[in-house]
Amino acid sequence: xxxxxxxxxxxxxxxxxxxxxxxxxxxxxxxxxxxxxxxxxxxxxxxxxxxxxxxxxxxxxxxxxxxxxxxxxxxxxxxxxxxxxxxxxxxxxxxxxxxxxxxxxxxxxxxxxxxxxxxxxxxxxxxxxxxxxxxxxxxxxxxxxxxxxxxxxxxxxxxxxxxxxxxxxxxxxxxxxxxxxxxxxxxxxxxxxxxxxxxxxxxxxxxxxxxxxxxxxxxxxxxxxxxxxxxxxxxxxxxxxxxxxxxxxxxxxxxxxxxxxxxxxxxxxxxxxxxxxxxxxxxxxxxxxxxxxxxxxxxxxxxxxxxxxxxxxxxxxxxxxxxxxxxxxxxxxxxxxxxxxxxxxxxxxxxxxxxxxxxxxxxxxxxxxxxxxxxxxxxxxxxxxxxxxxxxxxxxxxxxxxxxxxxxxxxxx
Length: 413
Description:
The protein is of the alpha/beta class.
């Protein structure tokens, strides 16, 4: 024993330099990553002492008082959950199965929701659903290509890059004319190699607010069916544009036209569940048998990525959707949120003709033709904070701020 202790002491004397060397060899290769521009906006706004400062950078819903409230329907569901939940035991990689079942008709409608080729599981937010979607595409086709319109939510790029899939982009929105570049989009998809995937936003496009109309959705559906393209439809804002049904009408057209499709879904915005990370993924396979295989892969991949999703937020949404009175209350609260957003849009658009397109756009965001220099000047001169190149959160404006904000923007256009 004495010899062993002496040997151990000798070994301990040699460990520190070895450990330091190994540590440097591993983490010394890392370079500082690019700063998160949104965090910089938050920090700059926080440090600004001016009483008239405006934050339209952070992408969360805010009411007329500038708060991001917990919905009353969710509050009631959480109280019931607190009283009724008997265990915090594991729920499995598929998450809350009943939650995923109850969301199906909300997303797909009764006709498609009963399709046995469609399978789905709960995920940690819409981002988790997106990551799982592209992981599934990579497993099925490691050399696959995903087509993506620009501009888009920056995390779309990050999620695709993390899997190693090839990203091919096309212009979706023209900043100067504030219009969807639909002919360019259709041309890009018509020339796409068979078997690729295309990432589409169902409604309330982030960051532009510019959505496809129903004729355009039908054209996209026809192209996907003809070219064998698999649509990945990102639904992050259902109910915050024109309505629960209206905001998924295009997605339903596409789902009905193709044999295979993926839908990623977020409850973070329309149920106000931002920090609880509530989402789901649904996959339409060619046959029910293929659907069962896909379901197994979804759970297998999820198990390796996050083991199982958090339960609380999804359980609260489940309780809302199980109770007709709570569902009606949620829908009324959502309608009020939507009404406020669209009221701000109309008011802002009426200030100057150059802001008119904002009225026809939908959801939290619009992107104005400003650029980095003018965005910086708006912050320094007018205490108005937004993301480059001019993405604004419409719901970030209180009613008493809209006029000043619009006049300041017009002065810089």
